[in-house]
Design brief:
The chain is built from 10 helices and 17 strands. It is α/β, with parallel strands linked by helices. It has a 6-stranded antiparallel barrel with strand order 12-15-14-13-16-17. A 5-stranded parallel beta sheet has the order 3-2-1-4-7, with helices on both faces. Helix 2 crosses helix 8.
């Protein structure tokens, strides 16, 4: 993040900004008003992270005539982040949010959520790696601190809705229930990261950027004179700005550095490792073993501290089970949908397209059965579910508990 840099400085790349044509700003304001769907003058809390997306949301809602209150969460030690090599101007976010609110002339509050964030996100992140899982901290943050705790604050402030800069669409279905749908820009769609948003939360949330692409959002910011128009997006986990998550885990859970064996799935011991927390399912590089064939991490066994490797075909997954599920579909809950054998499009990573599958239910456990073997499936990751008959609609999902290999 380069919030404090000028446009002439080149320590971080300058992103694309699409200049607005005549009427584009008015169109964006009208689209924001339609996304909120409340009478002009209603109070709306804007969750302001200090980035361009959330700042533009606050600005559009202000221009649309709403009573906007900006709220920023302090989630981690910004001073430490700023001191870390590779943290491109981290620590400016709160300052940028405050300055934007001042420019817009809206009230702005900063809430210290460091302890909540540490308990709900950072500690869970470290524990997941210790258990041989691959966590998704952005989902945990949305699920807990942002869409649970912050929504309570918004209600306490008398707001009728809370708006965020996420690239997803909120729509109202024929039955009058709110639906979550993909944004217009598939490269920016964040529905995967919001699978855990409950129906009650979705009733209260608004997403004004659904119809805009990122260069257009930056164009709106530039048109409105907001200094964050060229602020680059964060590429790292916010509390690991250097990208070196292993160092953080070593500090929080040093037992993850206990050595163990690298074992082929056929039983051969191929070498030793320096800690199970340094490996993830599907990893090929950095194994430091040479056997004449490409090998991948296919399983992690924290109880025995073994890293199990095998050929690429061993990564193919036939089925997975879900825990901590959420449902936004037409059925009352996900167990009902699973008992009915609901067809779904299952997305196991944010970078992978959804695959055709169906839900099943056995002994109260919801499973996803893939039509064909699926790669990149790791316990701890999320599995977001979409409607095959309406692929833009998010049905919900869950965290991957266990997997069943195809072979």
């Amino acid at each position: 993040m380069c919030g404090s840099m000028t446009l002439t400085e080149t320590s971080c790349p300058i992103p694309d900004i699409t200049p607005l044509a005549d009427g584009d700003l008015d169109g964006a304001i009208a689209a924001a008003r339609a996304a909120v769907g409340l009478p002009v003058g209603a109070r709306v809390v804007a969750a302001m992270s200090g980035g361009v997306d959330s700042t533009v949301v606050a600005a559009l809602l202000h221009k649309a005539g709403y009573d906007v209150v900006g709220v920023t969460l302090q989630l981690y030690d910004h001073g430490q982040a700023l001191a870390k090599k590779g943290a491109c101007c981290a620590g400016q976010d709160i300052h940028d949010a405050r300055l934007a609110a001042e420019t817009l002339g809206i009230p702005h509050y900063v809430l210290d959520y460091e302890s909540r964030f540490r308990d709900a996100v950072i500690d869970q992140f470290a524990d997941s790696y210790l258990m041989g899982r691959t966590p998704v901290p952005c989902i945990r943050c949305n699920q807990t601190v942002k869409f649970r705790d912050l929504l309570d604050v918004a209600r306490d402030l008398g707001a009728e809705a809370m708006a965020t800069g996420h690239y997803v669409r909120r729509a109202v279905g024929p039955d009058g229930q709110a639906q979550m749908r993909k944004a217009i820009d598939p490269s920016r769609d964040q529905s995967y990261f919001l699978f855990a948003t409950t129906p009650q939360q979705l009733d209260y949330l608004r997403f004004p950027l659904a119809d805009l692409e990122k260069p257009q959002v930056r164009g709106v910011a530039a048109e409105l004179g907001l200094r964050i128009a060229a602020k680059p997006d964060s590429q790292d986990i916010c509390f690991v700005p250097s990208g070196d998550y292993r160092t953080l885990i070593d500090k929080l859970r040093p037992q993850g550095r206990d050595p163990g064996q690298i074992v082929h799935m056929d039983g051969r011991v191929l070498g030793e490792h320096t800690g199970i927390t340094g490996y993830t399912i599907g990893q090929r590089r950095g194994l430091n073993i040479a056997v004449g064939e490409p090998l991948f991490v296919v399983r992690l066994e924290p109880e025995t501290r073994q890293v199990v490797v095998g050929p690429r075909e061993a990564l193919l997954t036939a089925a997975l089970t879900l825990e901590e599920t959420n449902w936004l579909g037409d059925q009352p809950d996900i167990t009902t949908a699973a008992a009915q054998g609901q067809p779904v499009l299952a997305r196991v990573r944010s970078t992978r397209p959804p695959s055709t599958a169906r839900l099943t239910l056995a002994d109260g456990v919801v499973s996803v059965i893939f039509d064909q073997g699926e790669e990149g499936v790791a316990p701890g990751q999320a599995c977001a579910l979409y409607d095959p008959a309406d692929p833009d609609r998010l049905l919900g999902g869950g965290f991957i508990a266990e997997t069943t290999a195809l072979v």
